[in-house]
Specification:
The complex is a heterodimer of chains A (755) and B (422). Chain A has 755 residues and is an alpha/beta fold. In chain A, 27% of the residues lie in helices and 19% in strands. The radius of gyration of chain A is 31 Å and the shape is elongated. Chain B has 422 residues and is α/β, with parallel strands linked by helices. Chain B has a five-stranded parallel β-sheet, covered by helices on one side. Chain B has a five-stranded parallel β-sheet with strand order 13-20-14-15-16. In chain B, strands 4-5-10 form a three-stranded antiparallel β-sheet, with no helix packed on it. The chains are: A alpha/beta (755), B alpha/beta (422).
């Protein structure tokens, strides 16, 4: 590299910073020992005049890199936005002035260290230059031609995007095409509505931006957003296409009723599933299959195979509404019929409540109870849980099993012959109660290869991490985030409709429209070379220096998003558009192979080493806090905002994700003389809150190895701790720091101090 | 008025709760120009007032923080707080929206330093905590407020205290003379994400919400459980600050009831299950009774129901309590009949939580002509007035957070189609 860039430091004295510390002394640190090319102080840096000063320095060439030593990076990002010159933020407000006593020696030392750290960061990082070769395809692949897929295709096309719609069957429409009527989704919500899927199919067929491939399936998918290389088998013909983003709308299949022998399925032709009843209702005259008579007494059995630990543990959501619809249709066709709906919890959420009431008004009889058996003579045995007795219902002509929905996250035919991919969470993990034993976190092996079985994949991803979309419990496709329900672990691939969770036609249409928007975002981000959620707009990406690479494969295995493949000679290859820029690969690498232009092992090492560590006699310990930017840093900010005081001996480095923490930083810190290290990350485990899915869990894994390193250095294990810190932990996070310093006081200073 | 025929590709999003934020951010990240208008001083809406979400028991502020980062990082998105939309005229691609602003009395020069709050002596009710406590007249809406800018209560304007507040600000950010304002904006599409309000518990006369101190609502329970709430996260009953360990939840308090909200509010069962988890987490000897008609834990959320049901200290009683009285100890006493056993009960608790439903606010926040609403006040998914107006989130029906986000993401695409003439 040529001459070092001119780094200008801007010290704000506002918001109490000027009272808390000596700005002059900080100026001396910046321009003296730390070699900033210039340093200006301002009393209100975020005001127009302050911002203009910085802009003028950038324009004149006096400032090539800027360090803004003022408030937290979480505020004023819009004020301190300078094209081409992203600022390094150095927090002297929330983490110094607002959480430390003014004028104290330790407060000054803390501020001075933060200035040194920011200058080290500036020296060892560069504004990201972006990708040279972004993906360019703007066509969206939609897999599945039911309500969800049709809607995703049509809504994408209406936004101006080309669509390739792939459907396995010979006709479009999926399950939705089989329904005679649909549940009401428009006022007054009281009567079954006409099934308008025909109009949807016609609109898709007529739309020039959509190419429909029926009798087709995806044979292989490689690449990433903006340049997915997709191979189709279309009725025996192979089609290859480069596509920008993928919407998976493969829908559902009914739960296999043959597994419900106890409910009479198979014992009598007059025990049918709800899906079978749709066909019967669609055929015109309603007749029993056994003898063709009109059914005068019909019972619907809800939760047939759903909410049942022996079958589907979840609620299939739509069955209550579907049974009400069918019951109303039977009452209309056979006005003198008796129609019973036997349910445990009747679930008609939202305005569907009106539909329930309409059915009651129309004479449908609702009975609470659990059906334990249905005989071949259609006798229904209802258990009275309370009395421990059973009640038998006889004289029925037709029994309808309201069977549930199973997601087609894998091809349905694979269900019988292959194990399904392993889910990554246990949805029934016990709720934590006061006084109960806390289960050991991270007990599962996070580095395990969870690629799942080789067959039955919908997309056949040619990824190092296997062909499948990751699934959650019960076979539903990924997203474990409540606030970001579209965020799957495979970038640029979005799922919608019942493959994600049980839902009806109206919800599926909404969900599909949302998924189409996400696909469009992925395409536009790929074209601009920027990251996807949650680091949208980020131009940095991991660059791999293959020289030191030992081919250990940790980065390819641990990437939460399957963004890194292996070349034929076993070197890692980053598919940049799949990368979410969390840095977990960087943390995985035992050598310094992987780095971002503005975030690297070297950069953070330099920041750690920039701190002045007092000698062992000074009684001023130093603790490094590596804190997740998303939750731990805001929690510490909140502590500052509420004026919480905590130890001045901690030096906080924000990290993109705990997964990006390199073990080298910990050994750097300890060999530099820090007395201990605290890692603060998001919750791992079944209810994980890590924004990069696995970063936190992987770090907990890695900590086992750190303990060994400490032992080999003859250092106490207690010197390095990991804590899960939630964003609401504004009180707890400072307490964790303080109590860690108590521990350090007990075990004494780091013996490496001064070496 | 804007020039006739002026066209715009800007999307106006009305309401800065989770649905409005999501619509705005998702649209902006897909390349659209967006203006987000919020009535209050901070974004976040109702979810910012929740302690945690079901079923993961994670903090809403976590997702909000990510969204605020996305807003901060996106030049195409502009946020206007303290503002409402009074009227919309025109057609898709060329609407004129009349934006009305209320004075915040604090300008963009505010650094968030808090000197104004320290100069305040008057305390005003704190809507963030559903008025369970008070805040200084000059205050930040809450510690996670976005934008991080203070607001001065109207009630002190014109008093000597206001002058002291103004004098305390070193950055000239206090504007005591700020008046309500209005301006027109030409936009191409409008998304109404006007959300909901908790149903008025006082209307449930037999439950005596106004008479009994220890009868609270589910939204108040969220504030008691929140570390930023009036009890700093300790679940204490209001009358005597005693730990609330024996607690009853009354489901469908107002919902599924012809006299109140005829529909099912969808989230209340799950919210009460979550409240049971809060209590079990807080007190080893907590006991929770949930009085219900049907437990509606839709789709995969059934597992949350199963997890709570597995706890023997949480009981489910199928019954809609008839009334609540109060004994000498100040304990609320529930009266009613168990629907299954037909037994009459009269049970005292430390505290009773009314699982009140969601009432739509579109009727207040949306000009009448904008979009059709149904008999309950929810926006009907119909494209009226030029075809460029849409709804997102609870404005269109009772939804949980994930469903609101899906609805909002979909609305973002519909709005983009509208402004791009697709």
């Amino acid at each position: 590299m040529a001459e070092a860039a001119k780094t200008a430091v801007y010290l704000c004295a506002g918001c109490g910073i000027g009272e808390a510390v000596s700005i002059e002394a900080l100026e001396a640190v910046a321009t003296g020992e730390s070699k900033a090319s210039s340093c200006r102080r301002h009393d209100h840096l975020c005001d127009d005049a302050g911002v203009a000063t910085i802009q003028a320095d950038i324009d004149s060439g006096a400032a090539e890199r800027i360090v803004i030593a003022a408030c937290s990076e979480r505020v004023n990002a819009d004020r301190f936005r300078f094209d081409g010159t992203p600022p390094i933020r150095c927090d002297l407000r929330e983490r110094v002035a607002w959480s430390q006593p003014p004028g104290a020696e330790d407060t000054q030392m803390l501020a001075a260290d933060y200035v040194r750290m920011a200058l080290a960061e500036a020296e060892k990082s560069a504004p990201p230059s972006g990708q040279a070769d972004p993906g360019t395809s703007k066509t969206i692949l939609v897999v599945g031609g039911g309500v969800s897929g049709l809607t995703a295709a049509l809504e994408s096309a209406r936004a101006g995007y080309q669509v390739m719609l792939v459907e396995r069957a010979s006709d479009l429409g999926g399950h939705g095409a089989k329904w005679s009527k649909r549940m009401p989704h428009r006022p007054p919500y009281r009567l079954p509505q006409d099934n308008d899927i025909g109009a949807l199919i016609a609109a898709v067929t007529a739309e020039p931006r959509i190419t429909v491939h029926t009798r087709s399936r995806v044979v292989s998918t490689a690449g990433g957003p903006g340049r997915f290389l997709v191979t189709l088998d279309s009725g025996g013909t192979t089609i290859e296409e480069t596509l920008g983003a993928i919407v998976v709308a493969t829908g559902w299949r009914p739960y296999d009723a043959t597994k419900l022998g106890h409910l009479g399925y198979g014992a009598s032709p007059d025990v049918v599933t709800g899906v079978e009843l749709e066909t019967m209702l669609g055929a015109g005259e309603l007749a029993c299959k056994s003898d063709g008579r009109r059914p005068a007494a019909v019972a619907f059995i809800q939760c047939a195979g759903s909410r049942d630990p022996d079958h589907l543990p979840y609620c299939s959501s739509i069955c209550c509404g579907v049974s009400i619809k069918q019951a109303l249709m039977i009452r209309e066709r056979v006005p003198d019929s008796s129609v019973y709906i036997i349910h445990d919890e009747l679930r008609t959420p939202g305005t569907a409540e009106a539909f329930y009431r309409a059915a009651q008004a129309a004479g449908v009889i609702f009975m609470k109870g659990k059906v334990s058996a249905v005989g071949a003579d259609l006798t229904v045995t209802v258990e009275d849980v309370l009395l421990g007795e059973t009640v038998a219902m006889a004289g029925l002509d037709l029994v309808v099993l309201a069977t549930g929905m199973m997601p087609n996250a894998t091809a349905p035919e694979a269900e019988a012959i292959a194990p399904q991919p392993a889910p990554d969470i246990d949805p029934l993990a016990p709720i934590l109660a006061a006084g109960a034993t806390v289960p050991e976190p991270g007990s599962e092996d996070a580095s395990e290869d969870d690629s799942g079985p080789e067959i039955g994949s919908i997309l056949n991803l040619q990824y190092r991490q296997g062909p499948h979309l990751p699934i959650l419990a019960d076979g539903f496709a990924d997203s474990h985030f409540l606030c970001f329900p579209y965020e799957t672990r495979r970038s640029g691939i979005y799922t919608c409709g019942p493959v994600r969770r049980p839902m009806d036609m109206a919800e599926s249409a909404t969900d599909a429209t949302g998924a189409a928007l996400k696909a469009i975002q992925a395409i536009e981000a790929a074209a601009a070379g920027t990251a996807l959620h949650p680091r949208g707009g980020d131009l940095s990406f991991p660059r791999i220096n293959l020289d030191p690479c030992t081919k250990c494969r940790r980065c390819t295995v641990e990437c939460p998003f399957g963004a890194i493949d292996e070349s034929d000679d076993d070197y890692p290859v980053v598919e940049v558009a799949r990368c979410r820029r969390c840095g977990t690969c960087m943390g995985a690498c035992p050598v310094r192979t992987i780095s971002f232009e503005n975030y690297s092992v070297e950069m953070v090492s330099a920041m750690i080493k920039a701190v002045e560590v007092p000698d062992e006699f000074a009684e001023k310990p130093r603790v490094l806090v590596l804190a997740c930017r998303n939750d731990a840093i805001p929690a510490l900010d909140m502590a500052g905002i509420s004026g919480t005081r905590y130890s001045p001996f901690a030096r906080v480095v924000p990290v993109r994700c705990l997964g990006s923490v390199s073990a080298l930083w910990i050994s750097d810190a300890l060999s530099t003389g820090y007395d201990g290290v605290i890692l603060m990350g998001c919750k791992a485990g079944d209810d994980y809150q890590c924004h990069f899915v696995k970063g936190s869990a992987i770090t907990q894994e890695r900590m086992g190895k750190i303990a060994e390193t400490l032992k080999s250095m003859m250092l106490e294990e207690e010197r390095v701790v990991t804590h899960e810190v939630a964003i609401a932990d504004a009180r707890r996070a400072p307490e964790l720091i303080d109590s860690f310093l108590d521990t350090i006081a007990e075990i004494g200073p780091n013996p490496f101090k001064g070496f | 008025m804007a020039a006739q025929g002026a066209r715009s590709e800007t999307i106006l999003v009305v309401g800065g709760g989770i649905a409005g934020i999501t619509t705005a951010v998702e649209a902006a990240e897909a390349g659209a120009e967006v203006v987000l208008v919020e009535r209050g001083p901070s974004l976040g809406g109702r979810v910012a007032q929740l302690s945690r979400y079901f079923p993961k028991l994670c903090h809403p502020t976590c997702g909000l923080e990510i969204n605020y980062q996305r807003i901060r990082g996106n030049r195409r998105l502009r946020v206007i707080t303290m503002a409402t939309v009074a009227a919309v005229t025109g057609d898709r691609g060329a609407y004129t929206a009349r934006i009305e602003t209320r004075p915040r009395h604090v300008t963009a020069r505010c650094t968030g330093c808090g000197d104004c709050a320290r100069a305040s002596q008057t305390r005003v009710p704190n809507p963030y905590n559903y008025d369970l406590d008070t805040v200084p007249a000059a205050h930040l809406a809450h510690p996670m407020a976005y934008p991080m800018r203070y607001v001065i209560a109207d009630s002190v304007i014109g008093t000597p205290e206001a002058d002291r507040i103004e004098a305390a600000c070193r950055y000239g950010a206090v504007d005591l003379g700020e008046e309500p304002g209005a301006f027109d904006m030409v936009v191409g599409a409008v998304v109404w994400a006007t959300g909901w309000r908790p149903y008025d518990a006082a209307k449930l006369q037999p439950y005596g919400y106004e008479r009994h101190a220890n009868v609270i609502t589910n939204v108040e329970m969220e504030r008691l459980a929140a570390t930023t709430g009036p009890t700093l996260g300790q679940i204490l009953r209001p009358s005597d600050a005693k730990p609330a360990k024996r607690v009853a939840m009354i489901q469908c308090a107002g919902s599924r009831d012809h006299n109140h909200l005829p529909y099912c509010s969808r989230i209340c069962c799950l919210a009460s299950l979550k409240h049971a988890a809060y209590l079990r987490e807080a007190y080893a000897d907590a006991e929770v009774d949930i009085y219900y008609i049907d437990i509606r834990a839709h789709d995969k959320l059934e597992s949350f129901h199963a997890r709570i049901k597995a706890d023997p200290r949480v009981r489910f009683i199928k019954s809609k309590p008839a009334s609540i009285s109060e004994n000498e100890a100040g304990d609320p006493v529930l009266h009613g009949e168990d629907t299954l056993t037909r037994d009459l009960y009269e049970t005292a608790y430390d505290m009773v939580v009314l699982a009140i439903g969601m009432a739509p606010t579109a009727g207040d926040a949306m000009p009448e002509a904008a979009l059709e609403t149904d008999e309950y006040g929810f926006i009907v998914a119909a494209e009226t007035l030029g075809g460029g107006m849409f709804s997102a989130g609870v404005a269109a029906g009772p939804l949980d957070v994930s469903l609101s986000v899906q609805s909002a993401t979909a609305a973002a695409l519909k709005a983009i189609q509208a402004v791009r003439g697709g």
